[in-house]
Design the sequence.
């Protein structure tokens, strides 16, 4: 197995729907979940009949990807681990509790410091937070199908210089990685996320050396906790063992099917709930690919496979 890291340098703003579901043009999240990125790759691959190969690579674990997470310069950030520690010393420190709660991403260089802070050791959390960009809102006007012009708002993320998103890819061979990289380049030209017709979501991927310390954690299957680096869902056979004695959160996954051949009109895919990045379990699982088609002409796959990293606390 080989792990590779790709920085996604965005040349335009990015619009991604929030996890809560429903109408989301007027808000946007900063990062891209692994199952969303997989779906976008499927749409891109379907343009020139590469989708069968893509599905095969992911279903057979030849390729596995993480969520995209922010980076700033050479500092990579990880999701905050979902782990409960009954720390009596910290209960009386209201300000410290708020700082722990407010952090969403942890700089990799300070990840061990954060874990020590969970156990009650003194830790400076103030310099762990970072601004990666800002949310902007543009007003548009809908004319088609309207008796009168109807204004609406589109929110999107614009990244600061030297800041954007990265993802980690695990591959079994160079052929599969080359296939993935070519498809990722094409997706960057087409755009990822919503409002691609307005030019949003365009990026250029850059393959970057993976820090050796991070590689060690990706390969550490003996650690006390195995933290998800993406959205994932165990198969029915894996479910009981995967969730036993672990800490996790779930997120709703749904939305419309983006396919011209699926149905004459836009249809929604089935809704499921998946484990969120940062969920910390006591064992790794494989996960599955789940067909969420609901009356359309072809399968609609939701990827429940992702990467893990070992966390000792």
Sequence:
């Amino acid at each position: 197995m080989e792990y590779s890291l790709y920085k996604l340098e965005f040349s335009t703003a990015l619009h991604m729907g929030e996890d809560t579901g429903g109408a989301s043009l007027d808000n946007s999240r900063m990062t891209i979940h692994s199952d969303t990125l997989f779906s976008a790759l499927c749409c891109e691959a379907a343009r020139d009949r590469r989708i069968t190969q893509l599905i095969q690579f992911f279903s057979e674990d030849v390729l596995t990807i993480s969520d995209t997470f922010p980076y700033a310069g050479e500092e990579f950030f990880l999701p905050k681990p979902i782990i409960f520690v009954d720390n009596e010393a910290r209960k009386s420190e209201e300000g410290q509790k708020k700082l722990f709660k407010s952090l969403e991403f942890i700089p990799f260089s300070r990840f061990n410091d954060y874990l020590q802070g969970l156990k009650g050791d003194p830790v400076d959390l103030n310099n762990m937070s970072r601004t990666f960009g800002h949310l902007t809102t543009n007003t548009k006007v809908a004319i088609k199908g309207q008796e009168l012009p109807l204004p609406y708002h589109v929110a999107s993320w614009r990244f600061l210089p030297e800041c954007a998103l990265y993802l980690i890819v695990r591959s079994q061979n160079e052929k599969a990685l080359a296939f993935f990289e070519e498809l990722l380049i094409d997706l960057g030209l087409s755009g990822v996320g919503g409002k691609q017709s307005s030019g949003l979501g365009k990026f250029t991927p850059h393959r970057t050396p993976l820090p050796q310390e991070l590689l060690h954690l990706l390969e550490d299957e003996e650690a006390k906790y195995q933290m998800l680096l993406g959205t994932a869902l165990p198969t029915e056979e894996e479910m009981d063992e995967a969730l036993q004695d672990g800490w996790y959160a779930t997120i709703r996954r749904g939305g419309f099917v983006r396919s011209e051949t699926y149905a004459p009109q836009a249809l929604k895919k089935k809704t499921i709930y998946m484990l969120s990045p940062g969920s910390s379990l006591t064992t790794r699982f494989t996960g599955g690919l789940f067909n969420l088609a609901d009356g359309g002409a072809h399968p609609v796959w939701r990827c429940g496979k992702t990467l893990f990293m070992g966390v000792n606390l």
